[in-house]
Fold each of these.
Amino acid sequence: MDRMIGVIGGSGLYEIAGLSGATWVTVDTPWGAPSDQILTGTLDGVKMAFLPRHGRGHVHSPSTVPYRANIDAMKRLGVTDLVSVSACGSFREDRAPGDFVIVDQFIDRTTLREKSFFGTGCVAHVSLAHPTCPALSDACHTAAGAAGITVHKGGTYLAMEGPQFSTMAESKLYREVWGCDVIGMTNMPEANLAREAELCYASVAMITDYDSWHPQHGEVDIAEIIATLGANADKARALVARLPGLLGAAHDPCAHGCNTALDVALLTAPEARDPALMARLDAVAGRVLKG
Ligand SMILES: CSC[C@H]1O[C@H](OP(=O)(O)O)[C@H](O)[C@@H]1O
Ligand SMILES: Nc1ncnc2[nH]cnc12
């Protein structure tokens, strides 16, 4: 099938340049409106879709980002590969502000968000043991290296609710006891929902600060973060620009099973399924529900 690369841009990344036929389109979903219109077009012959996670002008807080609508809208548009770009704090001395981390694991400490498309009337349990797509993550890693970015392969992202930053005790717990590498507020439930929607998902975390554990850097300073965001966003655009050339215009079935995550996930018997929920699942689970 045709590949379409979706990019969800985090804090600091509200648009990408260079798309042929660039058009902001409105996508309606059964889960409400996405964070903003979606910028569509092609880059090096590959279809692209870009969505600013917080909306242009940074309207949505991490807790109120419409995560389900965002993922549904990307799926509905035909996205096959979804790259999440996010600002984050670092728990490691050797992961400095300005560095990128290709995240491959998450610990979820969020509490206020809808985390699944499924529920009463259609219950599904997908595996999240490996929440990111290794092939898409590799492409992001290669693209970052080619763009001259200092990039680290693999890392555990602690997803916190926010909007306040962590206390020093929390920061030390996540770093020293839980062994996390970076911290942010948005990759959960985004990754969960991308898996339910059978998308290949990769997370590119752009470090802006050392959170609050570092004896020489003190507490998180939002002014410092904002100063780093601009340079990080330029690097992210350079990374994204290399993805079409690396991935190509055709999306083969994912060797890691991202595109078949729902094959054995649905538990509710067909005759017991809620028709209203089934209708809302038309894009996300259409592949398995049509069959
Ligand atoms: C700008 S600092 C806090 C803010 O930035 C990150 O957003 P995103 O993940 O969308 O790049 C972090 O998660 C917080 O929402
Ligand atoms: N230290 C931090 N904690 C949570 N989210 C962040 N986004 C950027 N820096 C962060």
Amino acid sequence: MTDKPVPRRTRPTFTDQEALQFHSQGRPGKLEVVPTKPMATQRDLSLAYSPGVAVPVKAIAENPTCAFDYTARGNMVAVISNGTAILGLGNLGALASKPVMEGKAVLFKRFADVDSIDLEVDTEDADAFINCVRYLGPSFGGINLEDIKAPECFIIEERLRELMDIPVFHDDQHGTAIIAAAGLINALHLTGRDVKSTRLVVNGAGAAGIACVELLKAMGFAPDKVILCDTKGAIYQGRTEGMNQWKSAHAAKTDARSLADAMAGADAVFGLSAKGAFTPEMIASMAPKPIIFAMANPDPEITPEEVAAIRDDAIVATGRSDYPNQVNNVLGFPYIFRGALDVLATTINMEMKIAAAQALAELAREDVPDEVAAAYQGSRPRFGREYIIPVPFDPRLIHTVPAAVARAAMDTGVARRPIVDMRAYKTQLSARRDPVAGTLARIFERVRRFPKRVVFAEGEEEQVIRAALAFVNQGLGTAILVGREERIHETARAAGIDLEGRENLEIHNARLSQRNGAYARFLYDRLQRQGFLLRDCQRLINQDRNHFGASMVALGDADALITGVTRNYSIALSDVRRVIDAKPGHRVIGVSVCLARGRTVLVADTAIHEMPDAQELSEIAIEAAGVARRLGYEPRVALLSFSTFGHPQAERAEKIQEAVRILDRARVDFEYDGEMSADVALNRDLMAAQYPFCRLTGAANVLVMPAFHSASISTRMLQELGGSTVIGPLIVGLDKPVQIVPLGATDNDIVNMAALAAFNVGG
Ligand SMILES: NC(=O)C1=CN([C@@H]2O[C@H](COP(=O)(O)OP(=O)(O)OC[C@H]3O[C@@H](n4cnc5c(N)ncnc54)[C@H](OP(=O)(O)O)[C@@H]3O)[C@@H](O)[C@H]2O)C=CC1
Ligand SMILES: CC(=O)C(=O)O
Ligand SMILES: [Mg+2]
């Protein structure tokens, strides 16, 4: 092996307070329920509820399979726990497990568009738990059991699988086993081993450990080469202490009595036990090129740094996202259920699990295309010791793993609704990918690769300090807080934030800065013919943080500026414009990115031009198309109006038609058309049916509004009424990267905008 392991932490750390704040801000928790049908009129109510609802009721009573057509059941999975084995934290009870279960539910949605709800069942009695869950079958298309300790989890899962005709899947058992198996297949390949002769130790004989051993044996591992260990040491034939039937089934014929005995000379070890369970001596005693999967969460049995201090020939994986090789069941459960639900599988069987493991293993060996490289941290990953398994953000997972699972379900006769056209199914799967997180994740990863110095102009504000810290902690670059040092520390202390000795965090007091003379002279050069004296410029630099911060960027002392928390947008913008010009040949505009219902639509101009003329509209279209491209979308630009292609005829629509003609003459390199109404622009079917001559090849993803008021009103309505996430307005076309957040923005908004500024989304 030539590539050296780099056991570095690749990702952010965060404080406990940040974790609590993340969970409590806005609507507490991580999920909500939203209706999928309108509930606006009397008729809607009559259809959704009594009397209309009686019709599907009778249809389902007659044919139960209809429930998958008339209710949410077919796409709904329950995440159910009693909190007896929460991650590696132990038995902390049903209520304490809720944050994890909500987390699993949102991961289902985020990664595979599976609707999911968490249910915490407050009993440790296996029979009571089974009785509670068994009667919930009609509500769900699948049951994901989570964080239930062994051995009760085996009894519970087995019994529920017998009682229910939908997939019942204990994620800590099978999800973990599938991902670990995928990683192991690749690690064996890289180290030139084969399944039959590999000596494996699995530490932890609970839910995850037992399931891993079972799956690996089903995949060909030799039973006499696999040793299971628990708190009492090796599980050998004849052992009586701390045993149960599941451990007995895997008791090995071995002289090993302790974990240390078992690990001596072992090729591979799985940690599914607890923090710190592996000692340096144990790691040192393993065979050459050992495979070490330390999967306890949140803290592994041994860290990659600790392994690296002992030997440099190991392949190391953990359950965490902040080290290379994350072996975590998040790579499995969303996609496995997606495939199972799509074929109405009655169960998730061994063949489906093996198909998922193989699909994951193969994916990691494939060349990473450009589109995918952007989703990975650091440089483009290449199959090797630091990349044995895809990362959860890999956009190929959604069309690879569910398809493999669905195919295996069909081949083994457990699919109630087989897929006829696999190719079409894969296309549908890709469309389920949530673009919100994908887009931002891509941008964050890009900035991490090329970290920047970003000025946070309103450095004395608490949420700005939090945002600056989060920016630094996420590895996005250096944060420069503008403000009085003492005041910033005071605010931070009052908020319980420790700023002492932070790397990559600078504080600049405009009044005391050695650069303020240079900034004032620079500003005076720009403003002397606009009635400003040198002392006016000095005052602006000393007293106004936007002028100071923008000058830092203009003169190259920083890469980007973020402001707006305490000032009106237009005031902040005019401060900045005194210091920074438009990029030559560009027009400064505002673009809002609206993310709704799986679609991303850019709206322009949401910030600058109140009543653009035709020429300005055409330039707005060009700038907005540029933003779309920078965000990774191929632009399809619609110039909007209340009329569509001349109907109804109106004087105001003429300027839109003229803007289209200007774009024609300019021979721009993106799709555009207009004038058209918003419904035509966004609804491809309507467009094709009514206006087959329209030049857009799909629904528009860039909407150029006829004026500022329509742009501003529509985006705000989308946000408030439509439940869209609206990012921006992003300032586009300035010569240096500056972004302005809305008044009173949260720390999260500020970090996102800072990342967008650092990414130079504005061109
Ligand atoms: N990365 C991933 O995707 C996943 C990781 N995990 C992690 O695996 C661990 C176990 O989870 P799970 O199987 O659900 O829990 P269980 O409670 O079902 O089982 C825990 C097992 O670990 C054993 N154990 C605990 N501490 C030690 C120790 N210091 N040395 C040896 N054995 C020990 C227990 O031994 P005994 O039987 O003697 O009590 C028991 O067999 C957790 O840390 C969890 O976070 C779990 C699922 C997924
Ligand atoms: C990842 C997971 O499910 C666990 O650690 O329990
Ligand atoms: Mg778990």
Amino acid sequence: MSSSTAPKKIAIVGSGNWGSAIAIHIGEKVRKLKGQYDEKILMWCREETLDDGSKLTQVINKQHENVKYLPHEKIPDNVIAEPDLCESVKDADVLIFVIPHQFVKKTCDQLKNKIKSTAFALTLIKGFYVDEQTNDLMLVSQLIKNTLNIPCVCLMGANIAHEVAEKIFCEATVGSRDEKHSEIVRQLIDTPEFRLRFYPDVEIIEMLGALKNVIAVCAGFADGLKAGFNTRAAVLRLGFREMVNFCRLLEKESTPELYLESCGIADLIASALGGRNYNGAKKLAETNKSLKEIEKEDLNGQSLQGPGTAKEVYRFLEAKNLLDKFPMFRDAYLICEQKLEPKKLLENLHNHPEFQQK
Ligand SMILES: NC(=O)C1=CN([C@@H]2O[C@H](COP(=O)(O)OP(=O)(O)OC[C@H]3O[C@@H](n4cnc5c(N)ncnc54)[C@H](O)[C@@H]3O)[C@@H](O)[C@H]2O)C=CC1
Ligand SMILES: O=C(CO)COP(=O)(O)O
């Protein structure tokens, strides 16, 4: 059978909260597609020993449940947890990256020259990097593309993982400039409960996914401080304004409709209603505990992406002397680091640059 007609192989690089939820969704969808895709999906699972001494991959493959990162949700038995990273992507035609963003560099380095040259990647990762020397911003999709020498498209949206696993309706935005890749993503993910919309953009969609985690942190601070509903709405609006202005620093001609898509306003709302970043920040404002402590107490190995992204955003804006134009991004970082009291975020809204209208 020629490689173009052989069933395409899917690999999922990651098996955390979102990784496991998307594995359930794609595992079920692939079975319905019959023949176009190899039913067996390898899901890279970083091996760990659970409290009872058992290995996580073995438990997943025996119980068909990720008992640590997405308990109580059945994973279809065509999804196999694979502890060896390179083995999990060997021969894959589609690589779905879904790990916390701080681990992407190291993971991609291990995969260098191990990927089929005709493969492409889809990133579901929310976060980006700012180079410590040059202060240049690098998206996860660019890092994957540059390190592995394959194209990379993205999917971002209001997709709280356990709701997706429970098949509660959601939508997402796919950024892809290649019709063939878009069609494969549509086949693998679009269902009546999980609807997709497509744009020939990757950068802004990905940027919005990362930035909303920082504003969700601000929403958590405001809620933890028991701010009024009007103030909490202002936090979301002014935060969204900063997200849009940040995107415009990087791409002046960005498509305005993107901000109204699931990757934009909807993801911010979902995250500020009940995401992990929101909950963690709320607890910081209520208890004055550090986010590291809160992560340890509440998340059992899951990772808050907002604080790390806040640091990257701060570094980028500081290097450009723009911190005063983005006071929420500035304060989010300082509060996460416990260098500023949470109430300052709300006080500083009174003189937000948004009110310096001519
Ligand atoms: N959980 C959610 O509801 C959603 C998450 N996302 C995004 O998806 C990405 C992945 O998030 P989750 O799957 O929720 O991860 P998670 O927050 O559950 O993180 C745990 C995962 O990180 C892995 N990990 C820990 N140390 C590692 C290391 N040194 N190298 C590689 N992996 C390591 C663990 O093995 C585990 O699989 C993040 O960027 C997140 O923002 C996007 C939409 C929804
Ligand atoms: O990105 C998410 C929902 O779309 C999840 O956000 P949290 O990581 O804050 O839970």
